[in-house]
Write a structure and sequence with these properties.
The chain is mainly alpha-helical. The protein has four helices and two strands. The protein is elongated and about 60 Å long.
């Protein structure tokens, strides 16, 4: 193996380990936060960032070929789909959870148009 292959291997390994470290932080956030919306935020951010960085590490391992292009498309799809789906699930939780007041001090008001608005306070 030449010097370039070693540099590519070490760079890919470091980026892949950074992605795995993000997954460890995500798991810590999921299991140590009390409220479901906080847990979901940790999971969504960790998944989006962790999978993207891990795929970048795999792209470095793979080199520039058609497989790398497929991984780029997966990263783009995840960056677009994961935050949108997490936001929709969070809105569903806010609109259907009757015990929201136990965890948050803010008053959620449903307007005539079906939009939620808040009046002061913050979540614990």
């Amino acid at each position: 193996m030449g010097v370039i292959e070693w540099v590519r291997f070490l760079t890919g390994a470091m980026v892949l380990l950074c992605g795995l470290a993000i997954f460890v932080v995500e798991i810590f956030g999921i299991f140590h936060m009390r409220y479901v919306l906080n847990r979901m935020h940790a999971a969504a951010m960790g998944d989006t960032l962790g999978i993207s960085i891990s795929l970048v590490g795999l792209m470095i391992f793979s080199g520039f070929n058609f497989t790398t292009l497929k991984m780029v498309l997966i990263v783009v799809f995840l960056w677009l789909a994961s935050p949108v789906s997490s936001h929709l699930i969070a809105r569903l939780e806010v609109t259907t959870n009757r015990k929201l007041g136990e965890f948050c001090e803010e008053d959620m008001i449903l307007t005539k148009e079906g939009e939620l608005t808040k009046r002061g306070g913050e979540c614990r």
